[in-house]
Amino acid sequence: MSVIQVGLVDLTGEIDPALVHAAALALNLQVTRDLPQFWPVTATVSYLPDPKKVPAGVWPVQLVKTLPPDEGGFHSDKHKQPYSKVIASKSDPSWTVDASHEILEMLVDPYGNRMQSSVAIEVVKGKIKDGTGQFGYLVEACDPCEDNSYAYTINGVAVSDFITPRFYDPLATDGTRYSFTGAIKGPRQILPGGYISWVNIEIDEWQQLMYVDPSQPPYIQNIGKADQTKSLREWIDGLKGTKQLNKVSREIKGAKAKSLFSYSDKRIKHMEKFAVEKAKLYQPAKKQTASRG
Asked: Residue 289 falls within a domain, yes or no?
């Protein structure tokens, strides 16, 4: 099986290179240790220090200051090869979760058109319930659990939770993991701050379930026909409603998210000190000068 190579590169010129490097190491551990437990993916993530160079065979994930109004994170180059863009700033540490999100989804569905048939869902009295129909869901590995509250850390770096293939099971079974952290407890559960997209064959249109605010019930909206000039994920990620929800989900709000990023900051600083001390183990010993009697 060929190995997919992903490269993390800072185009903002503002992020501490040591942090970008640490993030790449953590993301590499996520895609080599965590993701393959559930998805058949063989990949690596590395840090690209020169923004003007992308090595052959590498799918870049670019840290950028802004995105145009009609663009999301997922893109394809003129040769139809995937790459991603992630808004990042030194004042907002949540960009590492965003980078993780884009990398995981790019690896699970490199070309943005993977779909999975499963039981239809509906909102009944403010609750998400299984319906009697069948939908074709766009496989987006992080969207149902994308809120920062459900992130986890690797060596202090905050990364995104992700669904497992069992997320699309017809019914819940004991001992089954539906997301890596276990935050999702059953098939087709959408956590607050998350969403899911599908094609409804009966009306021949795309729809989304959006769970924007945990204090408000989720809702289903029609988003019409797919843009045939783009992949499904590129089209959906660029929609206004999707971008608004993604922005809200990236806010560090609520006790759980604040606690996670507070721990992340302290842990990263501690790991930096550890790295400095460890490097001393490999430095040549200083020669002692013989004293004259």
From this structure: no
Where in the sequence is the domain holding 8, given as residue range(s)? 4-280
156-211 pLDDT per residue, tens: 999 999 999 999 999 999 999 999 999 999 999 999 999 999 999 999 999 999 99
What's the per-residue H, E or C state across 75-140? EECCCCCEEEEEECECCECCHHHHHHHHHHHHHHCCCCCCEEEEEEEEEECCEEEEEEEEEEEECC
Closest listed residue to residue 191, CA positions, set 128, 250, 133, 139: 128
Write the single-letter amino acid at 115. Answer: M
The number of folded domains in the chain is 1
Among the listed residues 207, 11, 203, the one whose alpha carbon sits nearest the alpha carbon of residue 121: 207
Q: What is the 8-class DSSP label of residue 70? A: T
pTM (whole model) above 0.90: yes
Residue 133 lies in a domain: yes
Which of these, 49, 71, 70, 67, lies nearest to 58 by C-alpha position? 49
- Asked if the structure places residue 171 within a domain, the reply is yes
* Cα–Cα distance measured from residue 54 to residue 168, given in angstroms and rounded to the nearest whole number: 36
**H-helix or E-strand containing 186?**
none
Work out the angle between the directed axes of helices 95-108 and 17-29 (0-180°, nearest 10). Answer: 40
Chain centroid offset of residue 98 CA = 5
Terminal-residue alpha carbon distance, the chain: 68
- Does 291 reside within a domain? no
